[in-house]
Design brief:
- With 313 residues, this protein is mainly α.
- The chain has one domain (15-308): Rhodopsin 7-helix transmembrane proteins (Rhopdopsin 7-helix transmembrane proteins, Up-down Bundle).
- 76% of the residues lie in helices and 3% in strands.
- The protein has helices at residues 21-51, 58-85, 94-127, 132-135, 138-164, 181-187, 193-226, 231-260, 268-292, 295-312; strands at 11-14, 91-93, 173-174.
- It has a three-stranded mixed beta sheet.
Length: 313
């Protein structure tokens, strides 16, 4: 196709989850409640960690970063989805679409990398507890968190630039709930080989490599736990990893299934389900998983509630 025939649209029309009005209202209420709970739950984690000096440890430092990522990630797409549930014509400008894509990719990639950093923290805690404080120094923790954010940012910049550079030759209807890479690539009217190479490379950097590091960490952790003779000791060692392992299984599980599925069989509807899962479900469940399964967090929350009740009286 001649270059002078290539065109870029000024706005995109999002098809959303459903065209049925009643369904949209119901989903609006459901997603709205989930979004508010996500903000409250993750905000509470950040507050508790900031208030209690006993929680100023590597594990909670990473958990605080994870909560910030969850708040930012869900806020990059859910508010727009909520507004669109109430509108007949769901449009988003080209610029806003690019900005939304950039931030969702940044926070999504950073989350996978932070989970890998947290897996290393758990590996040191279980496999080398005597040197835990020395190994997991504040400098290393800040470096691992910074690398997670930086890699997510660089990966997002590359993928966003390559994706938003695609001409659509007038086509502007996105079969999705937000601006998402594959949905935008499907609209392109030029060869998208480079885009698919970038998507695969991105998945390797922010998904497969961190997943391999997490798997390796847990292989050593399981081996170390099995060497513990007492049942109580094993239970205690596993308890320190249970919350993280639950979140990792939930986060990496669906992403890996999606990544390993042949591209020819991937559907737009499946992409929507995956996006809703990561934008709504995961950020909502993370605070409950970490708070309900963590004695220190529950103790700090109890103290804060008791203190506030005393102040009222």
């Amino acid at each position: 196709m001649r270059k002078d025939n290539l065109t870029w649209v000024r706005e995109f029309v999002l098809m959303g989850l459903s065209s049925d009005r009643q369904t949209q209202v119901g989903v609006f209420v459901l997603f709205g409640a989930a979004y508010l709970l996500t903000l409250l739950g993750n905000g509470l984690i950040i507050l508790l960690i900031g208030l209690d000096v006993r929680l100023h440890l590597p594990m909670y430092f990473f958990l605080c970063n994870l909560s910030v990522v969850d708040i930012c990630y869900t806020s990059s797409g859910v508010p727009q989805m909520l507004v669109h549930f109430l509108l007949e014509k769901k449009t988003i400008s080209f610029t806003r679409c690019g900005v939304q894509l950039f931030f969702s990719l940044t926070y999504g990639g950073s989350e996978f990398l932070l989970l890998a950093a947290m897996a290393y923290d758990r590996y040191v805690a279980v496999c080398d507890p005597l040197h835990y404080v020395t190994v997991m120094s504040p400098r290393l923790c800040v470096a691992l968190a910074a690398i997670s954010w930086l890699v997510g940012l660089v990966n997002s910049t590359v993928e966003t630039v390559v994706t938003m550079s695609l001409p659509t030759c007038g086509k502007n209807v996105l079969n999705h709930v937000i601006c998402e890479t594959l949905a935008l690539v499907r609209l392109a009217c030029v060869d998208t080989t480079l885009n698919h190479v970038v998507i695969v490379a991105s998945s390797i950097v922010v998904l497969l490599m961190p997943c391999c590091l997490v798997s390796l960490s847990y292989c050593y952790i399981v081996a170390a736990i099995l060497r513990i003779r007492s049942t109580q000791g094993r239970r205690k060692a596993f308890g320190t990893c249970a919350s993280h392992l639950t979140v990792v299984s939930m986060s990496y599980g669906m992403a890996l299934v999606t990544f390993m599925q042949p591209h020819s069989t991937a559907s737009a509807e499946q992409d929507k389900v995956v996006m809703v899962f990561y934008a709504v479900v995961t950020p909502l469940l993370n605070p409950f998983i970490y708070c309900l399964r963590n004695k220190d967090m529950k103790a700090t929350l109890s103290q804060v509630l008791n203190r506030s009740s005393k102040l009222k009286h």
